[in-house]
Specification:
guanyl-nucleotide exchange factor activity; mainly alpha; RASGEF_cat_dom_sf; Rap guanine nucleotide exchange factor 5; Ras-like_GEF; Son of Sevenless (SoS) protein, Chain S, domain 2; 19 helices; four-stranded antiparallel sheet; two-stranded antiparallel ribbon; about 400 residues; RASGEF_cat_dom
Length: about 400
């Protein structure tokens, strides 16, 4: 394979320089580098807005590296980014892209350049998930990549703000933004996101999951994603509190999350309510004694009442009684529902004296039918959903915890 000079650039100004308005979207620099010649990447594009770039040839890694170098977070056109994400499967695997992105994500926290590079990688990942949507849910490499990226985001930022006290202003703005969102609206967004997943779950998914069977189709991801969503919300709550370096703002965050959990319960979303409560009950957050001491008594009382529904005693009697009183549509705490089915399956024989134990099957079916009951009266759920700015929550699932899938 011969080597050729590669040019991957934004278009320069027209030779006559007659149109000054194009200065903002054009560049006169032509970065070049030697890479193996790849015929499939020899492309020339011309955008309708006279913004154009030229790709002669390049290795996948060099293309990605240059893409991130020239990527602008405020550029809404994203032609090069869009082209790359739409066609990367032609010349590299999804796993290769995931590993390359992790390689481009700086592990150090010093300087504005490293921070800006991280934001570029996260911006690319956010665009990728918006572009591919459900297609990414079936790829195990994506799930592993998102979990790794999530840990990097949380670990680096916690280390930066607690051990070294860096990026204080950025984290402070993030906290202020969260504190400025109406708690009912935040709960409504969480409920809407959970409901969209829960409503896509088919009853048989629970049976397939319990029996470890393959569905042989696309009806298998809604349940796993909703279960993952519960973990994401729990981690989000924990991370937001621990990354906050201001005592007063930490107190406000605790109050905020307690109110959001209460609103989720009021909106009949026990999945997110459970997750938020468990996030606040993690050991790292529970040990913030000085912070908890400054939480007003009425919020501590609300939190204590919320904790009752997570009490596992008497086979989660408090939760079951509260959930039974709720009218559909409603979102159950899915891990407990799966636990019930698994307990029935493993605690009863399928065959007795070479005859099918149909009583066992009836108990499983009766438990699974709870999904049908919870998903009924969908107009009632639509009435709870409010039109709010959900960018923060979407970003949370996509890049910080997320998510996002």
């Amino acid at each position: 394979m011969d080597l050729r000079t590669v040019t991957l650039v934004e278009a320069e100004e027209d030779e006559d320089g007659s149109d000054d308005d194009e200065d903002d979207c054009c560049s006169s620099s032509f970065p070049t580098f030697n890479v193996p010649y790849l015929p499939c990447l020899c492309v020339t594009f011309l955008c309708v807005c006279l913004f154009r770039y030229v790709v002669v040839s390049g290795t996948p890694l060099k293309i990605l590296e240059h893409l991130l170098s020239d990527l602008r977070l405020d550029d809404q056109r994203g032609l090069l980014l869009d082209d790359f994400l739409l066609t990367y499967l032609v010349f590299m695997t999804t796993n290769d892209l995931c590993q390359a992105l992790l390689g481009q994500y700086p592990l150090h926290t010093d300087g504005k350049e490293a921070l800006y590079r991280k934001r570029k990688v996260l911006h690319l990942v956010a665009h990728w998930t918006r572009l591919y949507k459900d297609f990414l849910r079936e790829d195990e490499h994506i799930k592993a990549f998102m979990k790794t990226l999530s840990r990097l985001c949380v670990c680096i930022r916690v280390c930066a703000c607690t051990a070294q006290g860096r990026h204080y202003s950025e984290l402070s703005r993030r906290t202020v933004r969260l504190l400025g969102i109406n708690t009912w609206d935040m709960a409504a967004v969480l409920t809407q996101l959970d409901w969209n997943l829960f409503n896509s779950i088919h009853e048989q998914e629970l049976v397939y999951s319990t029996m470890s069977c393959s569905t042989g189709g696309s009806h298998r991801e809604g349940l796993s994603v909703l279960l993952q969503r519960c973990n994401e919300v729990q981690q989000w709550v924990m991370s937001e509190v621990l990354m906050c370096v201001s005592l007063n703002k930490r107190v406000q965050l605790l109050k905020k999350f307690i109110k959001i959990a209460a609103h989720c319960k009021a909106q009949r979303n026990l999945n997110s309510a459970f997750a938020i409560i468990m996030g606040l009950n993690t050991a790292a957050v529970s040990r913030l004694n000085i912070t908890w001491e400054k939480v007003p008594g009425k919020f501590k009382k609300i939190f204590s009442e919320l904790e009752l529904i997570t009490d596992p005693s008497l086979n989660h009697k408090a939760y079951r009684d509260a959930f039974k009183k709720m009218k559909p549509p409603k979102i159950p705490f899915m891990p407990l529902l799966l636990k019930d089915i698994t307990f029935i399956h493993e605690g009863n024989k399928t065959f007795q004296d070479n005859l099918v134990n149909f009583q066992k099957l009836h108990m499983i079916a009766d438990t699974v039918r709870l999904i049908r009951h919870c998903q009924s009266d969908q107009l009632g759920m639509l009435s709870l959903q409010k039109t709010v700015d959900s960018n923060y929550v979407q970003q949370m699932y996509t890049v910080c915890v997320q998510a996002t899938w």
